[in-house]
Structure formats: C-alpha cells, structure tokens
C-alpha cells in the first residue's frame, strides 16, 4: 500500500546526497495529501538539519563534489524567519515552495527540480537536481543555479547529458505553467495560514531512519522516468 499522510501529522522532507547520505532535513506538519501531491508547512523556527564540516561551519557554499569528498556531519539549524509551504506532486520531478514573510503575505515561489518523490512512513526523500526557478508574486521568473546544473551534468555521481535534458524539459514545463498562471501558480495557497497552535516543528526521534532510496550512483544509466516514484 502506498504511504499516505494525514493533516497535522509531523513529517520530514529529506534531500539526499548522490551516495545516499542525508544532505538536508526539514521538519514539517502535513497540510494535505491528495491528488495534487503532499503539501507540508515548515514554520519559522522549525528544526532543519544541514551539513557542516568538523569545525561546525556550514558547507553549502562549497562545490558539491568537494563537499561530498570531505568528512561532514548534520547539525540542527532553525528554519528561516518566514514560513514555507512546500508541495511535492507525485511523480512530477519537482517541488514548489510558497514563502511567506509575515502570515498570509507571499514573498514568492521557489521551484526545486528533483527526483520523483520516494515516500516512507516518516516523510519523503528526494535527490536534488541543482536547477531551480525563482518566481516573484507577479509570476516573473528567473533560473537559479544553472552553473551548478551544468557543472554536475556528466559527473559520475550526478546525471548524464540525456538525463539533464529530461530535467531541463521538466523545468521548462513548469515555466509554462507559471506563464499561464495555472496551478500551482494560480493563487492557490497564496494567503495560506497554518492551523492555530502549529508552532515550530521539532526534530522527531525517527528523523534519520535508513532511507529507502538507492544511492544516485546506482541510478546512473537509468532513465529518470524509471526511477521508483513511491514505496
């Protein structure tokens, strides 16, 4: 049976390194889980886990291949001062985040290109594909991290040029939705307010249970459309 989540349930969204290690973890509350996908709320101050070096310094600024080659560990970091609603459609190969500066005031959308979601009892796992789209409230948009996407294309740990073409096509399909003002860029959830009593989500005890996802290296040569979409 596919894993499903109920509104209000604590869930974690985990982004994985190509070798299967956890790269980042976000702690959230489930808003909805339906035909549109899984929507979660990461409130301001919710616990996030990110990679740091052995001195405790964040490693996000480093080239990805360099970060993977050095010893790192996960450390708790509070979510930004604003809240974020994240929708991960099943099988879509991307997620969309609504960011709010103050309750109900949209800062914009952030589209993250990633592998189709892998579900497990505590949340979801994805591989990040580097390429992103920044979208303003008026739906003007721009690419983000195109250089990183290009640098990682063809690297043994990441994706082949053929897979990169699939990722780019998915991104361009999203930009067409943006231009047309279609869901999820049609005003849905733009004034979203979390349920009363939903404060920052703390780290649950089971946040680091072994992932069901295979290392990205094991997927090399496998078409992205064939990557398992749920478990």
TrEMBL record:
Protein name: DUF402 domain-containing protein
Domain called DUF402: residue spans: 83-180
Keywords carried by this UniProt record: Hydrolase
Family annotation (Pfam families): DUF402
Hydrolase is among the record's keywords: yes
InterPro entries given in the database record: DUF402, FomD-like_sf, Ntdp-like
Superkingdom as given in the UniProt entry: Bacteria
SUPFAM superfamilies per the UniProt record, alphabetical: FomD-like (SSF159234)
Hydrolase as UniProt keyword: yes
An MF annotation (GO) of this entry: hydrolase activity
């Amino acid at each position: 049976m596919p894993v499903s989540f109920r509104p209000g349930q604590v869930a974690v969204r985990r982004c994985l390194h190509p070798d299967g290690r956890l790269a980042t973890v976000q702690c959230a509350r489930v808003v909805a889980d339906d035909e549109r996908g899984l929507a979660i709320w990461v409130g301001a101050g919710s616990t996030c886990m990110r990679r740091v070096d052995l001195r405790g310094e964040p490693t996000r600024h480093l080239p990805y291949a360099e970060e993977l080659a050095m010893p790192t560990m996960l450390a708790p970091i509070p979510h930004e001062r604003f809240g974020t609603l994240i929708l991960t459609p099943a099988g879509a190969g991307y997620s969309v985040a609504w960011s709010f500066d103050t309750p109900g005031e949209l800062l914009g959308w952030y589209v993250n290109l990633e592998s189709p979601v892998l579900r497990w009892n505590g949340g979801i796992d994805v591989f990040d594909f580097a390429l992103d789209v920044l979208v303003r409230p008026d739906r003007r948009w721009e690419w983000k991290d195109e250089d990183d996407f290009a640098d990682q294309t063809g690297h043994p740990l990441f994706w082949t040029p053929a897979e990169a073409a699939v990722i780019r096509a998915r991104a361009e399909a999203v930009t067409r939705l943006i231009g047309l003002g279609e869901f999820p860029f049609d005003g849905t959830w733009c004034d979203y307010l979390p349920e009363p009593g939903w404060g920052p989500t703390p780290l649950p005890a089971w946040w680091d249970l072994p992932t069901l996802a295979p290392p990205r290296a094991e997927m090399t040569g496998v078409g992205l459309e064939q990557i398992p979409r749920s478990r």
